[in-house]
Amino acid sequence: MQTFVLFLVAALGEISGCYAFWATFRLGKSILLIIPGILALIIFAFTLTKIDASNAGRVYAAYGGIYILSSLIWLWLVEGVKPDKYDLLGVTISLIGTVVILFSPHRW
């Protein structure tokens, strides 16, 4: 459960940090929005280091499914666009991959 919470915190940091840049350069918002965006990206990167795993690559790969899920929630709640059936199918497939990566024995 702790891993899932850390993944969610990381996803919120990454999405909000990246969105600060999107809002500045694509939506014409204040350049000052980049400052909290950078802080959010620092939180994202630091949080991933707290995941209990021996390899960074596995953490990043497993995180991918959580990131996709969080991005679709962001799309819906922040941008007001409801995910469609293909979005939901894609996130389901990616979450299956996350579970396989996190809970496989990885003996080699």
Could you characterize the architecture of this molecule?
With 108 residues, the protein is mostly helical. 74% of the residues lie in helices and 0% in strands. It contains four helices and no strands. The chain has helices at residues 2-25, 34-48, 56-77, 85-103. α1 (2-25) packs across α3 (56-77). The two termini are 26 Å apart.
List the helices and strands and how they pair.
Elements: H1 2-25, H2 34-48, H3 56-77, H4 85-103
Helix pairs in contact: 1-2, 1-3, 3-4
Please describe the structure with a list of short key phrases separated by commas or semicolons.
single chain; 108 residues; mainly alpha; 4 helices; 74% helix
Spatial gap, N to C terminus: 26 Å
Number of helices: 4
Bulk shape: flat
Number of strands: 0
What is the H/E order? HHHH
Describe the structure concisely for a colleague:
This protein is mostly helical. It has helices at 2-25, 34-48, 56-77, 85-103. It is flat, with a radius of gyration of 15 Å.
